UniProtKB/TrEMBL annotation:
<feature type="site" description="Transition state stabilizer">
    <location>
        <position position="931"/>
    </location>
</feature>
<feature type="region of interest" description="Disordered">
    <location>
        <begin position="568"/>
        <end position="594"/>
    </location>
</feature>
<dbReference type="InterPro" id="IPR026585">
    <property type="entry name" value="GlgE"/>
</dbReference>
<keyword id="KW-0326">Glycosidase</keyword>
<comment type="similarity">
    <text>Belongs to the glycosyl hydrolase 13 family. GlgE subfamily.</text>
</comment>
<feature type="binding site">
    <location>
        <position position="711"/>
    </location>
    <ligand>
        <name>alpha-maltose 1-phosphate</name>
    </ligand>
</feature>
<feature type="domain" description="Glycosyl hydrolase family 13 catalytic">
    <location>
        <begin position="663"/>
        <end position="1013"/>
    </location>
</feature>
<dbReference type="InterPro" id="IPR013783">
    <property type="entry name" value="Ig-like_fold"/>
</dbReference>
<dbReference type="InterPro" id="IPR021828">
    <property type="entry name" value="GlgE_dom_N/S"/>
</dbReference>
<dbReference type="Pfam" id="PF21702">
    <property type="entry name" value="GLGE_C"/>
</dbReference>
<comment type="subunit">
    <text>Homodimer.</text>
</comment>
<keyword id="KW-0328">Glycosyltransferase</keyword>
<feature type="active site" description="Nucleophile">
    <location>
        <position position="844"/>
    </location>
</feature>
<keyword id="KW-0119">Carbohydrate metabolism</keyword>
<feature type="binding site">
    <location>
        <begin position="988"/>
        <end position="989"/>
    </location>
    <ligand>
        <name>alpha-maltose 1-phosphate</name>
    </ligand>
</feature>
<keyword id="KW-0808">Transferase</keyword>
<feature type="region of interest" description="Disordered">
    <location>
        <begin position="313"/>
        <end position="336"/>
    </location>
</feature>
Amino acid sequence: MRICQIDLTGTPEADQHALQRVAALGFDHVLIGGWPHLPGDDTLAACARHGLAPLLDISLDRYMADGASGTDDLPDAAWIDSGAPAFAPHETDNHIPGTRLRWHDRQIAEALVQWWAARLRMAWAAGAAGFCCRAPARVPGQCWAALLATLRGDAVPETARGTPRFLAWTPGLTPAQLDELAPAGFDGAFCSLPWWDYRSAWLTEEMARLRRLGRVLAAPALAPARHDALSARRALWTAAAIGDGILVPAGFETGGTQARDPLAPDGHAHDGVPYDITHEVLEANTWLAARDPAPALAVRLLSGPNAPLTVLARLPAPDGHGNGTDAAPRRDDPAVPDAGPALAVVLNPDPMEPASLGADRVLSAMPHASARLEPAAGGPGGTLDGTSRLDALSSITLAPADIRLYEVPPVPLSRPGMPRPDATAPHGHETLAVTGLGSVVAAMEAPRIAIERVEPACDAGRFAVRRVVGERVTVSADIWMDGHDKLAAAVLWRAPGETDWHETPMQQGGNDRWQGSFPLVALGRHEFTVEAWRDTYASWLDEIGKKRAAGLNVALETEEGARLVADALLPPGGNGKKGSGRKNGKKDNQKAADSELSAIVDELTAAAGDDERRLQLLLSERTAAAMHAVMQTPAGRPFASRHPVAMPVEADRLAARFASWYELFPRSQSNDAQRHGTFDDVIARLPAIRAMGFDVLYFPPIHPIGRTHRKGRNNSLRSEPGDPGSPYAIGGKEGGHDALHPELGTFEDFSRLIDAAAANGLELALDFAIQCSPDHPWLRDHPEWFAHRPDGSLRYAENPPKKYEDIVNVDFYAAPPAGAALWQALRDVVMFWADHGIRIFRVDNPHTKPLPFWEWMIADVRARHPDTIFLAEAFTRPKMMARLAKLGFSQSYTYFTWRNTKWELTEYLTELTQGPLRNFFRPHFFVNTPDINPYFLHHGGRPAFLIRAALATLLSGLWGMYSGFELCESAPLVLDGKVREEYLDSEKYQLRVRDWQQPGNIVAEISRLNEIRAGHPALQNHLGLRFYHAGSDAVLWFARFVPGTDYLFGDDVLLVAINLDPRTAHDADIEIPLWEWGLPDQAGLAVHDLMRGQRFALRGKHQRIRLDPAQLPFAVWHVQPLERPAPRPPAAPVSTDPHGA
């Protein structure tokens, strides 16, 4: 919807001209006054003649008491609320006159619904296309529902025009008011863009709440006048990009002036107006008309509030096949068209200064894996030739108040038949090493240049480090050679399926440490290594520069330089060594470089005897560029040395690093303890789960459950009739790991659930548990896959003294060929569900299965489905947990569940974020599981749940909770007088019914924490963490940040304090880390309390904080310096990649 708000109160000729101009600007709707006077039939017909659908601006909460409202007077004066104010200074609908009506009186409200329905019905019959409803919160939600149902029912038959559209004017409404309006049936609502500062997260948070009301429209301004053309242009394109439609006041394009010539051929305004962006309005409307009309799934803020550029992502709604959503990856063949690419909106919030941001900050934050930005055709700065595509090594620079739109296509998924890693071969090693130095010849051929400590690396390249597609991987290495000659170096890299190398240059820092970078352009295994060589031309420049500075004669050195250039023209062996395996660019470019160098050689020859002229030529930028081009061939790299290992980097999508998981048992979602839940029952729960801010919905096993030795309630060995059994006892007569429990539904129902989840911005994760009930079909069809005892009985799962007779385990090393067939069958189970659209698997107890199996299986699955994510549920020895991550698990459960004290948390998080684990181990902080009811929660009450939720959400990019946590469920199981870390009446063995609105719940706090995570890049991984001193052992005080360039702290910094004692309020002296910005101890910070909404300033390093668990046991502050610190001098390349897994 492209709506122009216009005042049609002039003469018929003036109105005709105004409508003509609106149509010429590309609008398809007009918003005209519908109150106190309904427009006449002539006005509505004039709109239709110009192809404009008229919307009427109305306010149902008020009435013109003087009778000027029309021919139908109000039937009862008692309907008027004479005590209510006509307007308030903070309202946005004060331009609508009238006195308030008594909608709060139920009987009067019912009559008002019918009275308004009659009036609006007449307007619809006269040609109105719909209504913009001002002050909607002053009319009860159930009254709106009744009114809209009436007007869309039999009283207004659907015609070619459809049914009336109702748009709610919602700027400034509270979340509670939106909750009441959401079920009413509006077609759309308006966000508060005119009040946005182009930085803060509140706009996207509001838009997420408005999605429940339908389309979210945006207005660049409330009134046509703007301060300047640049800000007007930015507001216009921002509205067009993020909204599902726009509302533009007439005259906005000319700064509010009325001096317009609607009949001018080009539609432009007269001279003398403040500014004229008529062409921008026309281009924006043209761009909107060409865009997919479907509303967006979501608009997300990808940048921090203090980033130099603000980045928003408009995510397309799914197309019904699981495509086009950030939640679920594409379920079909990659060649099948999806819902279109996401849109990145990059804008400069500063009206005075230009600013820049690395494209990797945009790409790596996209929910779907993306490797390039393509200017949106028809948008501001858009191109059609594709020459302005950006990758992770690019930088985006915008002028003051500028804006750019980029399409962000997802990376293609690998296909069967594409080159893929050999899962059986050692990873990361390429035959590059030289043989031993057994002779003088061998010694002379040995590498002269040393390359050491290449990073990032995991076990010297045996395993891959983990990153996210779109990131810029920073590579560093120690590189040096004997003598004083200058060196050059490059990062060689290749993407999955490639055999040739790309390269990017490296720069030298202090102590012979070199640094370069390369982009992650696809899902899957990338490789890189480092090559260095003697830079002959740079060495000559260095030598002659020193001699000239010393006043020495350099005639001989000039001759050496001329010969150096001449030798470079015809390097030994031709233009390059055969089989170098490096992409050196187009042959035409090489020919052009050779031609330029040949011309330089000719000029040097012609200048023989004129050393001054020859030296001028040799020192010119032209010669430097030509000699640099020579180094792109192997022959131009004397003494070239290459690091002998191709170092692997595994690129995942964002959900592998940043996601919020919600776990539930589908069978308990019926809300009836006597009825087994279904997938349709889960669908009904999806909006509530998404409203809490979760983006992954995880199910325990959903397969048939065995009956032999079925467990009863509370893990009893005997089940009663009707007991559902443990879902981990997989397999029955209905099928095994590739079947659905029949009471949950069919595969058609499951597919519908996946689509419904995607439409709600959720992705499903399934449990992969390699265990079978005694009734599993595999025991009948493949008895050789299972271990038997000497008496012929099956070997059940055991954890002495416990014996799980409802579960039997497979024998991974069964006698050939059974073992290989079992491995393939287990791999095929994962592939089966991946082919049904599941791309996230939580793996049960992987530490009890062979490590080679996981390395082979994960590599094989990801070769076909590189967007697949595996979570290791391994509560075991630290080295085993680390090894599983090295072998390919994208995420890992952790000891966070049992880390409760300040010392424990500090030590554990330091280990995860500062040591070797940071490169490959992604911690997933679950606050509880169906198996683990943490002791900390048993008697800590509501504050204990808030403490653990805050720790998980604010310390890791990955966190999860098992349903019931939000209701503060904590009743433990007690056996033989001992309190167990398990739930009483565990849902693993019975159906559970819950009251999701139970008093004392923490739904609001969890929702807000997830909302904060979504709006702050600093919280979207587990890195960027530093602990600081707090003068109480009960208070944990730390910072989360995006690393900066000039200082440790970058453009998104949060300071967090958490009281770890759920029973007692604690005060603590804290240190504000001003030094991290390079600020003195007396400097100040601007603080925004993200939980309470308060803003204040702190001055000075030493402060005191009080946290009362009875109110809120934690504080989350977004902070920024009040003073701009002076930048530090550039730092030398660091020895470790600033990024991590």
